[in-house]
Amino acid sequence: MKFSTGLVTVLSFATVAFSNPIKRDVNQVKADIANIAAKVTALDNAITAFPLTGGTLLAALGIHNSAVALDDTLKAATTNVISTGVVGDADGLDIINAVSAFSPNIDHALSEIVVKKPAFVALPIGGLPALIYQDLNKLQASTDGYATALVNNAPSSLTADAVALKAAALAGFPAAIAAYAP
């Protein structure tokens, strides 16, 4: 009986823990946006700095690492947006403005990765374009997930703005992915 009493206690705690997920707040969402903005800027800068000729494998792998870090951050931020729920008008406007501020960097990074494809292909290691293709697909999916969460939790007065922002954030992905498609 001692075993089953302990098991019931553990199951009771587990039930409470999973039925009451940690509620995030708008400040966490805003902090996540600042973190995403920093990672988007770092990725954009790394891609932009990669030369058209004479690039190094180390620099190329730095771009990959930046992409992975951004993907991980977007996934965590999506969870936080979802658990925050619908935000008020003032916070919604703050969020849209903050995301709008770094959105052009997404488009620039995607344009640059297409321009730099010959430089990545020229590196003496095979498979780098395939790795970039994989990174682009993952980033598209995590960006879509994050943007969808923002749209779903935007106040109704800002839903159209959030939808437009989502479309802008995703606009450059199809061309970049097509450029690296096998």
From TrEMBL:
Keyword tags: Signal
The secretion signal range is: 1-19
Q: Which PANTHER family match?
A: CELL WALL SERINE-THREONINE-RICH GALACTOMANNOPROTEIN MP1 (AFU_ORTHOLOGUE AFUA_4G03240), HYDROPHOBIC SURFACE BINDING PROTEIN
Which ranges of the sequence are coiled-coil? none
Q: Name one GO cellular component term.
A: extracellular region
Q: What is this protein called?
A: Hydrophobic surface binding protein
Q: Which Gene3D superfamilies has this protein been placed in?
A: 1.20.1280.140
- This protein's species is Panaeolus cyanescens
InterPro entries given in the database record:
Cell_wall_mannoprotein_1
